[in-house]
Amino acid sequence: MAAPLALVDCNNFYASCERVFQPRLRGQPVVVLSNNDGCVIARSNEAKALGVEMGAPWHLQKERFARLGVVVRSSNYTLYGDMSARVMRVLADFTPNLEIYSIDEAFLGLAGFEHRLEAHARMLRATVLQWTGIPVSVGTAPTKTLAKAANRMAKKNPTAGGVALLLTEAAQTAALAGMELTDLWGVARRMAARLGEAGIHSPLDLRDAEPRFVRERFSVVLERMVYELRGLPCLSLEEIMPDRKSIMASRSFGRPVTTPAEMAEAVATYTTRAAEKMRRQRLATSSLIVFVETNRFKPNDPQHCASQAVQLPVATANTGTLISAALRGFGAIWRPGFSFKKAGVMFLDLVPAHAVQGGLFDAPDTPAQQRLMAIVDRINARYGRDAVGFARSGKRRAWKLRSEHHSPRYTTNWDDLLRV
DNA sequence: TCTGGGGTCCTAGGACCC
DNA sequence: TCTGGGGTCCTAGGACCC
């Protein structure tokens, strides 16, 4: 059998975070609301038991919540991010192979723990609870897809104690028999409908389907799922988190926005926020999209949803440059006479940005350049963060050198660099 | 009045190249 | 009748996830 892995998932994560800091909320129905307090994005078990739906618009539920005694919290993403980091640090003590999958989930490679998988899972669960106050569920299985299913069992089954293992085919068959297609990781409503048309009505049907048929009729993704359900791993543990491929900042407005000045301000604000996020991840962009939307929930109002891509000559993480580019794009899609509900900015074509303060950015391409960047980083760490940077002029890549004794100059000669 | 904010991957089709 | 074939890149749109 493949080396087992575990999926650890924080229970009702945002609601649990609120409880850590307000213990009196324990045992009470708690919901957390989205930005602008628009709709429900997290529910405690007690709230779920009362029939509170995910995504329920708050303005339609206010009175009902009050009647039922549901405690309502506005979301606090900074807090949740911090709690997430604490949980992940504890998990790192329980495996050498950790993949942080989302703010509240992680996969743990468990090679070497085969002889005590259940005890390990229970110890992990107790430790996370004790050190962070967050309850988690642990699902252990030979593949990620089955670990997801195991995790679901651990959550649903009150006698499981938050831990479930799907290590044998018999256990896997029994578990899948109790699930709907849409309970599977990667199958949502539309895909389930299409599968139904092909005579696949349950997770067991899918597991036992012919992989080639599934690939031809559907996709390679679904074919992989067939194998995963059979216990043959197709999705590996990704311990190194790859760089983001896009970064977005967008918001719905609390009230309709009709003037270009207000819209432009929103675009500038979101651009600033996205640029901050991007710099935190040491990335830069040469391509952005700005978009605006009217209120899609008011079909009788005039609708205008538009987006505009803007290309920059070089990758940058400079807020001013990005704002002026975003506003240029905004100018192309702004139309008077509409009530806008939402706007946003997305950065694409992200490249590693080795920061040059106030300068240009570009990414090292070749392995040789990457090795050189490691040297550059060390020089900068020792002599100040922008002692050496690099830039690009047209298609020509050049290193930008600075020191106390020389004015900045560009070079393509590595030996120059090593003399700095 | 009021309905989230992020992300990823795959596919299909067209342009273009040799 | 047939009208090269293979490869890459780009874009738009769909589907899914947390």
Salient structural properties:
420 residues; alpha+beta; five-stranded mixed β-sheet; five-stranded antiparallel β-sheet; 15 helices; 40% helix; disordered C terminus; DNA-binding
List the helices and strands and how they pair.
Blueprint lengths: L4 E6 L2 H9 L8 E4 L6 E4 L1 H5 L8 H11 L2 E4 L2 H16 L4 E6 L2 E5 L7 H16 L3 E6 L2 H13 L6 E3 L3 H9 L11 H9 L5 H5 L3 H7 L2 H10 L17 E11 L2 H21 L2 E12 L11 E11 L2 H15 L6 E9 L2 E2 L14 H17 L4 E6 L2 E6 L7 E3 L2 H5 L2
Helix pairs in contact: 4-5, 10-11, 12-13
This protein binds a DNA duplex (18 and 18 nucleotides) through helix 3 and strand 9.
Task: Report on this structure.
With 420 residues, the chain is an alpha+beta fold. It is 40% helix and 23% strand. It contains 15 helices and 16 strands. The chain has helices at 13-21, 45-49, 58-68, 77-92, 117-132, 144-156, 169-177, 189-197, 203-207, 211-217, 220-229, 260-280, 319-333, 367-383, 414-418; strands spanning 5-10, 30-33, 40-43, 71-74, 97-102, 105-109, 136-141, 163-165, 247-257, 283-294, 306-316, 340-348, 351-352, 388-393, 396-401, 409-411. The strands form 4 sheets. A 5-stranded mixed sheet has the order 5-6-1-7-8. Strands 9, 10, 11, 12 and 13 form a 5-stranded antiparallel sheet that branches. Strand 14 and strand 15 (396-401) form a beta hairpin. The relative contact order is 0.08.
